[in-house]
Amino acid sequence: MRAIPAYAKINLSLEVLRRRPDGYHDLVSLLQTVSLADELTFEDSDRVELSFDDSGLQTEDNLVLRAAWLLRHTYGVKAGAAITLRKRTPVAAGLGGGSSDAATTLQELVSLWELPVKGEELVGLAARLGSDVPFFLTGGRALVEGRGELVTPLPDGPATWYVLAKPDGGLETKTVFESLAAESMSDGEVTRALASGRSAEGQSPFGFNGLQETAFRICPAARRCFDALQEASGRPVILSGSGPTSVAWAGANQGAEEAARSMRDRGFWSEAVRCVGREESVE
User: Fold this and answer.
1) pTM for this predicted structure
2) Does residue 26 carry a catalytic annotation?
3) CA-CA 20 to 30 A from 237: which of 26, 69, 207, 214?
């Protein structure tokens, strides 16, 4: 029985364009999968059951269970699956852990249950589970637009390391978006330029995050963590997603482990991670 990694993501840039009539927001974001990962296993069973190494995740709203039940209801599946989730990506951290778990579950159960589902049909199912889920079907580096369902895969960049750091607790994406002011919205051009390689030479490896200041206002600890990571790493830093995790660029592993250790010594959760390319992400 093989453990399947469900890789986390970071946002290298994230711009909010507008609020949509359905209450969601149109975004342009450059996403990258990284080596921090949950692990899932799947076995045949006569019913759907999910085991955790963290009892706090045992809820009917868990995205792994929602993905399994979505497939069963959509395609009339009678078979079950015994799923085990080993959680390593922090919850509500802006790293897409639950969305990655959901995408991995869709892909693995389509295979286990031998369902004729692929391409746009699978993307449509993923979008019903959450805005980040379609991206995780391919992983690697991608430009993501719309609500998250429009994913343009991009060539893998150079082998790059990052330092992740977060304060205690999480930050709900819905809360951040509901508090977002119009002046935090932009036209997406910074992100598109970064994705296409049109950024000026010597420019920051990050674009900017239109949710960052709103997240800092809601969660002052996220700002303190951001400032501490800038000091510990001496490198460019950006907030990932809606936070509260901050990300520092570390190039070819230039001081990544040392910066992560420094952040842990300051009382923050922190990990040094490397980027994960598309081939590794979906193998």
Assistant:
1) 0.94
2) no
3) 26
